[in-house]
UniProtKB/TrEMBL annotation:
GO cellular component: endoplasmic reticulum membrane
Alphabetically ordered keywords of this record: Endoplasmic reticulum, Hydrolase, Membrane, Protease, Transmembrane, Transmembrane helix
EC number annotated for this UniProt entry: 3.4.26.1
Localization per record: Endoplasmic reticulum membrane
Residues that span the membrane, as ranges: 45-64, 76-94, 100-124, 136-156
A Pfam entry, by short name: Rce1-like
Protein name: intramembrane prenyl-peptidase Rce1
GO molecular function, one term: metalloendopeptidase activity
GO biological process, one term: CAAX-box protein processing
């Protein structure tokens, strides 16, 4: 995460990643797909696991750009599988949040925040990193945060 947010450094990519994509993707995958799946008879708990698959597949097109850039097929497949997995996991979380809150606007903000933060970095585990000496503290903090995040799911009920 950057130390400060400098709006002068915003680009078209920033606008796409932080505003347009979260809004349009949540409009499609949460506010449109969730009601449709519920109308088809899916239970909310099943919608949490079905809707994200569509969201994950919507990001598979990035493989085309990697192929055009000359990446090896094995690398493209691994990166695409990883991206499909984490976008599907985020999609499950976003679907769950949308079902709990009954509103998509908060999910748009969550999506934008996640795009801004990116995936967690584990460079602190490499020698030479500025927090390498405290890597175990950082790792414990990651684990405690993840366990806390997951355990909070069960205090909310889906609508």
């Amino acid at each position: 995460m950057p130390d400060t947010i400098d709006l002068r450094k915003w680009s078209i990519d920033s606008l796409r990643n932080l505003v347009i994509a979260p809004f349009t993707e949540e409009l499609i995958y949460r506010s449109s797909l969730i009601p449709y799946l519920l109308q088809l008879g899916y239970k909310p708990v099943h919608v949490v696991f079905v809707a994200p698959v569509f969201f994950g597949f919507a990001h598979v097109h990035h493989a085309y750009n990697q192929i055009k850039q000359g990446h090896r097929m094995k690398e493209v497949l691994l990166v695409t599988a990883f991206q499909f997995t984490y976008t599907s996991l985020f999609g499950a979380y976003a679907t769950y949040a949308c079902l709990v809150w009954g509103d998509v606007l908060g999910v748009v903000f969550i999506h934008s925040f996640c795009n801004f933060m990116g995936l967690p970095s584990f460079t602190f585990m490499q020698r030479g990193d500025r927090v390498y000496e405290k890597r175990w503290i950082v790792m414990v903090a990651f684990i405690v945060g993840l366990v806390g995040f997951i355990s909070l799911f069960w205090i909310f009920e889906m609508k």
